[in-house]
Amino acid sequence: MVSILARNRRVVVIAGVSALLAAVSMNVVLSRSAGAAATCPSGTSVTLQNIPCAIQGVKDTNVTLAGATGFQSVAALPLPTGKYVVSATFEAQVTGNLDSVPQNIDCRLVVGSDSDSAGVSFNNTDTSTIVALSTSHAFTSPGQASISCDTGGRNGFSVRRTRVTAVQVGTLRKVTMA
Predict the structure, then answer these.
(1) Dihedral (C-alpha) 53, 58, 79, 52: value to the nearest 10 degrees?
(2) pLDDT at position 28, please?
């Protein structure tokens, strides 16, 4: 009976986290304080009543990527100390004339020492695609989740409609999948 109850609690927690992530990804406003810094509990203040805690950064403005080599900053979300599962979505677009096809850019989500990356390939001018990245990280001091892209020295690329969602969790385990 105890193992069934413990398992059911885990199922409820997993279902709750899934519902929270679904609500955040649909841009449902869970709570917002105008002008207040986004914070989640840390240290001994982490309890079952306040975890998970979600922080979402939104940047709708267009970020034009310069025709330079190297990764260029698109957005950064400051995060307090804690363990986070982080996802990011944004729209990458090409607006210039393509000298040759395909034209590629590389984008990455960096959270502490952990990261995820994706290559985006364009075959036509004035097209866009949605990019989704995710990773997790345990911060022992405040840090950030940042998105950056490398155009390989080509002009005509931009990023817009950027969302970074960090869900603080009580336990974070990374495992290798079969």
Answers:
(1) 10
(2) 35
Around Cβ 129, how many Cβ atoms within 10 Å? 13
56 in Cβ contact with 32 (< 8 Å): no
Q: How many domains does the chain divide into?
A: 1
For 56-82, what is the mean pLDDT?
93
pLDDT 10s digits, 100-145 = 778 899 999 999 999 999 999 998 888 999 999 999 999 999 999 9
Closest CA relative to residue 124, chosen from 86, 80, 156, 162 = 156
d(CA 131, CA 162): 10
CATH of the domain at 84: 2.60.120.1340
Residues found in the chain: 178
Contacts of 78 by beta carbon, 8 Å cutoff, 6+ apart: 37, 38, 142, 143, 144
The confidence score (pLDDT) of residue 101 equals 75
